[in-house]
Design goal:
Helix content is about 30%, strand content about 25%. A hairpin with a 3-residue loop joins strand 4 and strand 5. The protein is of the alpha/beta class. The strands form 6 sheets. Strands 2-15-17-16 form a 4-stranded mixed sheet, covered by helices on one side. It has a 4-stranded mixed sheet with strand order 4-5-3-14, covered by helices on one side. The chain folds into 2 domains: about 210 residues, UDP-n-acetylglucosamine1-carboxyvinyl-transferase, Chain (Alpha-beta prism), CATH 3.65.10.10; about 210 residues, Alpha-beta prism (UDP-n-acetylglucosamine1-carboxyvinyl-transferase, Chain), CATH 3.65.10.10. The protein is globular. Bound molecules: shikimate-3-phosphate. Shikimate-3-phosphate binds next to helix 5. Shikimate-3-phosphate (S3P) binds next to helix 5.
């Protein structure tokens, strides 16, 4: 797909449903008794992988344009699938469902696409095995495909070496089936959608600092959930509004859970003109609209406790930093190496191709901003967040930019290019 520099972006965009929360609504709704009705569900390929896995586990899920209905069968209502569960490109599906499958009285094999087959699964194999689970990486490389033979699980207290909501959620979900309470402590608090939503379904989950604890065998009851817009998807429009001159964008329906809002804090620290409007609670999560105007940005240091709250937005922050005066340092972000692509490599290589002054470090990158970007051929590595971040960067770069594998945005934001193009002023 080809992009050229634009002179102004104006208008409004409504952000589709949050990917993390959409996955959880399907999973927890499947484990609840009765029907769960979900509105503003994200119809991205990752969330459709979750639906397809739970259908194969015997759950009826109606997916219509207005809402999805999940006819849950309770904590012990899943049935043995007849073939391998395909988790597609989705790390969230793979890791969270593994926690659930570890406690079932049957065996499942999980596999996904080429990217999923390189993503680290030892981070869930270790705690699940401590709980008594029987989980094997079939190629012996600690990646998918995984075989999970259900077992009686034991409650544990797990000190996670990584701040990962996927690891935390996997262990808490296994804890639903354990013989005693299960606790997960993280080095830094990661997104807490599992804790919030499971509580809404009737589970007993307590959080204290960076530790979450779950009681086993709750009665989960179906409920209505309205999914807030995904701040990770909003990030592209926040950045676009700030870096393209003469721009004013109203970004509507943005979830601003404090475990996810690091992009707002960083964009404001960079000097971004962002106004929060219409704050309300939607689906148990704070949401708002954001009015974003072109701004003169300055470089910042991003590291430490804020990293888990913006981990998926770092490619966009790196592009934004090229349009800022001064140096931006991104550190403590080693996790970027194990996302849908190695995002330290894919960001740095592609930004260098556009003429950016950027260097990779072991845990992030250093960017000297203020040097104009020029068009280039960008390899998305089929990573949706790389494709979207560089589409935005291309609108501020001289000449022509080609994004290869641009279609991969269907993973989290199928309408992304239409929404972006609708803002371009001729
Ligand atoms: C997610 C958690 C994050 C994030 C991913 C979605 C989730 O991963 O990068 O896109 O829904 O729990 P980690 O928890 O592994 O950092």
């Amino acid at each position: 797909m080809i992009f050229h520099k634009v002179t102004s972006l104006k208008g409004e965009v409504t952000i589709p449903g949050d990917k993390s929360i959409s996955h959880r609504a399907v999973m927890f709704g499947s484990l609840a008794e009765g029907t769960t009705e979900v509105t503003n569900f994200l119809q991205g390929a990752d969330c459709l992988s979750t639906i397809s896995c739970f259908r194969k586990l015997g759950i009826e899920i109606e997916n219509t344009p207005d809402r999805i209905l999940i006819h849950g069968k309770g904590l012990h209502g899943l049935s043995e699938p007849t073939d391998t569960l395909d988790t597609g490109n989705s790390g969230t599906t793979t890791r969270l469902i593994s926690g659930i499958l570890a406690g079932q009285p049957f065996t499942t094999v999980l596999n996904g696409d080429a990217s999923i087959q390189t993503r680290p699964m030892k981070r869930i194999i270790t705690p699940l095995s401590m709980m008594g689970a029987d989980i094997t990486s079939l190629k012996g490389n600690d990646c998918a495909p995984l075989r999970i033979c259900g077992s009686q699980l034991h409650g544990i207290t797990y000190q996670s070496p990584v701040a990962s909501a996927q690891v935390k959620s996997c262990v808490l979900l296994a804890g639903l089936y354990a013989d005693a309470p299960t606790s997960v402590a993280e080095p830094i608090l990661s997104r807490n959608h599992t804790e919030l939503m499971l509580t809404g379904f009737g589970a007993k989950v307590t959080s204290s600092g960076t530790t979450a604890t779950i009681e086993p065998e709750p009665d989960l009851k179906g409920m209505k959930i309205e999914i807030p817009g995904d701040i990770s998807s909003a990030a592209y429009f926040i950045a676009a509004g700030l870096i393209i001159p003469n721009s004013e964008i109203l970004v509507k329906n943005v979830g601003i859970n404090p475990t996810r809002d690091g992009i707002l804090r960083v964009a404001k620290e960079m000097g971004g003109d962002i106004t929060i409007l219409n704050e309300k609670i939607s689906g148990g999560e704070p949401t708002c609209d954001l009015l974003v105007r072109s701004s003169s940005l300055k470089g910042v240091t991003v590291g430490g406790e804020i990293i888990p709250t913006l981990i998926d937005e770092i490619p966009m922050i790196a592009v934004m930093a090229c349009f800022a005066e001064g140096t931006t340092i991104i550190k403590d972000a080693q996790e970027l190496k194990v996302k849908e692509s190695n995002r330290i490599d894919t960001v740095v290589t592609n930004l260098k191709a556009m003429g950016a002054h950027i260097e990779a470090t072991d845990d992030g990158m250093i960017i000297e901003g203020g040097y104009p970007l020029h068009g280039a051929v960008i390899d998305s590595h089929l990573d949706h967040r790389i494709a979207m971040s560089f589409a935005v960067g291309a609108l501020g770069a001289d000449g022509e930019t080609t994004i290869e594998g641009a279609d991969c945005v269907k993973i989290s934001y199928p309408e992304f290019y239409e929404s972006l193009k609708s803002l371009i002023q001729q």
